[in-house]
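WARN retry 2 of 3 for item q-0093 after timeout on previous attempt; input resubmitted unchanged.
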Amino acid sequence: MSKKSIIFAGLLLVIALSFGGLLIANFGNVKQIIASSQIEYKTTPPIPNVSQEIKNLNEAFVEIAKSVTPAVAYIEVTTSSSEGEQQNPGFQMPFDFGPDFKMPENGPSRGSGSGIIISNDGYIITNNHVIKNATDNGIKVKLTDKREFNAKLIGVDPNTDVAVIKIEASDLMVASIGNSDDVQVGQWVVAIGNPLGLNSTVTAGIVSALGRNIQMGGDSYAINNFIQTDAAINPGNSGGALVDINGSVIGVNTAIKTTNGYYQGYGFAIPINLAKTVATELIKSGKISRGYIGVSIKDVDIKEAKGLGLDKAKGVLVQDVLAGGAGDDAGLKVGDIILSVNSKEVNAANELQTIIGSQRPGDVVDLKIFRDGNEIDKKVTLKPRSESSNQTAQNTTPKNENSNLNSKSFESIGLTVTDLNSNLKSKFSVDNGVYIQSVKRFSEAFDRGLREGLVIIEADKQEIEDISQFNSILEDKSKGDIIVFKVKTQDGLVRLIAVEVE
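OK item q-0093 returned
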């Protein structure tokens, strides 16, 4: 080996030894870095001593979930809408009643809801709208233990949106039924159901309001008396349980108030006392036999109270009395104010409907009535519903028949009226009155509900013959006075409307 080769080899050896040293040093540094990057996770809670009250509340929610969830079933429904009627998918109404339906363009639809198991042999309370239009064998129930059953429809009550179904099973977990009459605004509640296809979901909140009237459905006989809660309720929760902190069911989750079809802070549940009464009768006979007074009613506001002589707004105003109905037989009159039923004070129309809705035809109820400054008692023997009486007010303005009639405007209330001709008298089945030709937008009359196409037949309990008499009544009124008008629609419906003179 030449001298140059020996020198070159030596240089390579020196370089190799130096590089190797660097590698060893760097590996040592990497090892040191890895060792120093190990994280010691903190496990000590920042609040080590949580108050016992909070612990108890937390434990209560956990126990509710464990105890009640097995008694709430998942209901899957296949529906077939009747011709010309589309099943409500539950995503379009301001008040949302539909289950979580998936809507194909054609053919049947499928959706989900919830149900409360009320007997160990398979009776289940749910909502009428959950199982509405279900096909034969189209109701399937799934339990939390994964068992599945086909359910039989026992009965429905559209006026309360309650339905009962039955599965053939035994030894089921049964929900404990509470007392919705004891519920108070502000108390904690838990909603349990199957929203948006998510089985066994638990949400918590408080009772936000009681006796809420959400105008469910278009039927004037519908009973609207809901518990309002801010516990999250979504499509699919319908028919599920609203329970108190004892785990007792106090309501059947039914609807939400929404602008987009989903939870926005307002949920509504049928009080369990009402649902239980309905379910018991459906199980017994498969249908509801409900007693009716046969009157049209509304809440009393401060202007109506003043106009009718009450010291404050209270009671329920009788707007119309059905000819031949129970109220008519008992001597009730338009303008009566119902103060109590069977000694229970009532101050809302839906409250009165709920009480009467729990009665049967033939039952006798005691009403305390305010009439012409006096309180009187009336016994009313309830009758079954008359199907022909279920009417709704419409704008039925006769066209081009009042152009030649005498008319007068009353700026103090925002009305223009005309005398009645023979045609109008015939259409409204009246002998006297004045016809509302127009109503000034956003006037007092407009805000109180008067509209073109109505006939005023009384003012201040005086029958109106013509414009001249109507004018004389208004001329005697001063600013701030209240006038109570009795008006009639072309469909024969009568209403009382109180208007303040401006």
